[in-house]
UniProtKB/TrEMBL annotation:
SUPFAM superfamilies: IVS-encoded protein-like (SSF158446). NCBIfam families: 4helix_suffix (TIGR04258), four helix bundle protein (TIGR02436). This is Four helix bundle protein. The lineage of its organism: Bacteria, Pseudomonadati, Bacteroidota, Bacteroidia, Bacteroidales. Gene3D superfamilies: 23S rRNA-intervening sequence. It comes from Prevotella pectinovora. InterPro entries: 23S_rRNA-intervening_sequence (IPR012657), 23S_rRNA_IVS_sf (IPR036583), 4helix_suffix_dom (IPR026354).
Length: 189
């Protein structure tokens, strides 16, 4: 083969994925939220933090595993998506159980926060902002970020599926690589 990059290209550029960046923001916000607003003895603290962590970590692990297993990449990306859905329910439960308002989709606050969240994928931005915000506001911001990450993960899964359909898996790549090598080196069957 002329270019080794064609044979089993290395994957793992997860830090550049907006979904990963948003998941990092969600994790940091959740860590802050759980320790600030939940009772330390409440199991929800660990559950929320672990769901947020799982959302982030599974994006990274799936991306890294993609080099040799597109199946694992797809599965772990979906686990990340599912973990963030679990976290979404925890935030919704918190708001409901504490008599706080979950902002509606067309609420002015939602529209404004959605626009801000769309433009900011850096956790430092949120960590500077949230200490001065109420539990209700932070929970709603987290919900908005989770919805945005969910959309990005759904699109990522679609791209991963299309990539698999187009290129196949590791066995197919290995076969193509071996055939190309033989052809370049004048081997016969």
């Amino acid at each position: 083969m002329e270019n080794d990059k064609e044979f089993i290209p290395q994957k793992g550029g997860y830090r550049d994925l907006i979904a990963f960046q948003k998941a990092t923001c969600i994790y940091d916000i959740t860590y802050y939220f759980a320790h600030k607003f939940l009772d330390r003895t409440d199991r929800t603290v660990d559950q929320m933090i672990q769901a947020a962590r799982s959302g982030r970590q599974n994006i990274a692990e799936g991306s890294a595993a993609a080099t040799t297993s597109r199946e694992t990449e797809l599965k772990l990306t979906n686990v990340a998506k599912a973990s963030l859905q679990e976290l979404l329910l925890d935030y919704e439960d918190y708001l409901r159980q504490n008599g706080l308002v979950q902002w509606g989709i067309s609420d002015v606050r939602t529209v404004k926060a959605r626009d801000i969240c769309k433009r900011h994928n850096d956790t430092e931005f949120y960590m500077k902002q949230i200490p001065s915000r109420s539990a209700e506001t932070i929970a709603n911001i987290a919900i908005i970020l989770i919805h945005q990450a969910d959309t990005l993960l759904r699109l990522l899964i679609e791209r991963q599926k299309a990539d698999f359909l187009k290129n196949g898996g590791i066995r197919e790549e290995m076969t193509r690589g071996r055939i190309a090598y033989r052809q370049q080196n004048g081997w016969k069957k």
